[in-house]
Design brief:
Blueprint (H helix, E strand, L loop, with lengths): L15 H12 L4 H22 L3 E2 L12 H5 E5 L9 E3 L7 E3 L6 E8 L5 H10 L3 E7 L10 H4 L6 H21 L4 E5 L9 H8 L5 H16 L6 E6 L15 H10 L4 E5 L19 E7 L9 H11 L8 E5 L14 H19 L1
Parallel strand pairs: 1-6, 6-7, 7-8, 8-9, 9-10, 10-11
Antiparallel strand pairs: 2-5, 3-4
Length: 368
């Protein structure tokens, strides 16, 4: 069981040289070996950054991915029409930067039975393990994030029903966590930002238009999550929930109250990484519903702006949460990743380092 008191969500800003290498590879002027060399160098760099900041849990920053969830379609054949907008679409909000709407790609759909070509994250872990002695965390997407790839008029030939498609998605992720376990990984995080979308009427209507009530969709999704988690029970699993994080913008606002009971109580993960960086996140009251065998990582440090939080305020907020849930079942972290896709948030690498160091220092101050 991973018991770290400081735990960032996972993604880190892509260095400019890596972005240039990705662009060159896409243009055909850099081969696969050249891109991998650039990725390896970038991962070594962000590992050093995390270690220097004092992070007890280290990731590879998801630097090899287009987006936190993109590896399913990158590693598996059978889906057409997936561009980066497949991971970015929606109505995004920011008081400072202004709102932004990205349309859902119209041709995006699973059209053939899914066929795994390579691992999603096992190779990421193998390299990460070789370059750090800290706890190495790997992130994977929650299976129901891919529900909208099943489009009845285009997908039924490959998968007669939605359940058939989701069974294959779950099977692929189960295979991945078993492979990670075989390689010696001890900590896997499932990212499920789509569940908090259900607190917003517009997004709830989107799911309900597909034939699901909010309650039935949560139940279905959590059952799929647990099938993945239970495939490797020896691992520590984290489970991340937020309200959208892209280009320093967000999708929805509202507390966890409406989804806390089924998610906090139902998911089999041992660590819940929850967004709590501003008033959009609601109060700590829903934490009363967290079972005794789970630890909550309070995402008090925002990744959306360069503003550095006040250390005393962070300590105060942790103490405030400890009035609802025992202090020994709490940790501190970031509200989300710094770069959930190649489109990073509006801050710099030095801002990222300072925030990670503040996270680690705060954990040391509260729990040492």
């Amino acid at each position: 069981m991973v018991e770290a008191r400081a735990d960032h969500v996972g993604s880190l800003l892509r260095p400019p040289l890596l972005l240039e290498a990705r662009a060159a590879h896409a243009a055909g002027s850099l081969d696969a070996a050249g891109l991998k060399a650039a990725e390896d160098a970038a991962v070594r760099e962000v590992v050093r950054l995390q270690e220097d900041a004092g992070c007890p849990v280290v990731t590879d920053g998801e630097l090899r991915r287009e987006s936190f969830q993109s590896e399913l379609t990158a590693a598996v054949d059978g889906v057409e029409g997936v561009s980066i907008d497949a991971w970015l679409w929606g109505d995004w909000h920011s008081e400072e930067l202004g709102d932004k709407t990205i349309a859902r790609p119209g041709q995006m759909a699973v059209v053939r039975p899914l066929e795994r070509r390579r691992s999603l994250a096992a190779e990421e872990f193998a390299f990460l393990r070789a370059v750090t002695g800290r706890v190495a965390k790997i992130t994977l997407p929650s299976p129901s994030l891919f529900a909208n790839l099943w489009v009845p008029e285009r997908s039924r030939e490959a998968y007669p029903s939605f359940d058939d498609f989701m069974a294959d998605v779950v099977s692929i992720l189960q295979h991945e966590v078993r492979e990670l376990r075989r390689l010696g990984c001890g900590y896997v995080q499932l990212d499920a930002p789509h569940y908090p979308l259900l607190v917003d009427p517009k997004w709830r209507a989107f799911y309900e238009a597909r034939g699901w009530t909010a309650d039935s969709w949560l139940s279905y999704g959590i059952e799929a999550d647990n099938a993945v988690i239970d495939a490797a029970p020896e691992l520590t699993f984290g489970f991340h929930l937020c309200r959208g994080n892209q280009d320093s913008r967000w999708l929805v606002e509202g507390g966890y109250d409406e989804i806390a009971r089924p998610v906090f109580g139902g998911v089999h993960a041992q660590r819940l990484l929850l967004e709590y960086d501003d008033e959009r996140s609601g109060s700590f009251d829903p934490l009363r519903l967290v079972p005794d065998d789970k630890l909550v990582v309070l995402g008090l440090i925002t990744t959306k702006t360069a503003r550095l939080e006040d250390a005393d305020v962070l300590v105060h907020r942790i103490r405030e949460a400890a009035e609802v849930i025992d202090l020994e079942r709490l940790a501190v972290g970031t509200q989300c990743g710094f770069s959930t896709s190649v489109v990073g948030n509006d801050l710099g690498v030095e801002d990222e380092r300072r925030k990670l160091a503040l996270m680690a220092d705060t954990a040391e101050r509260v729990w040492s």
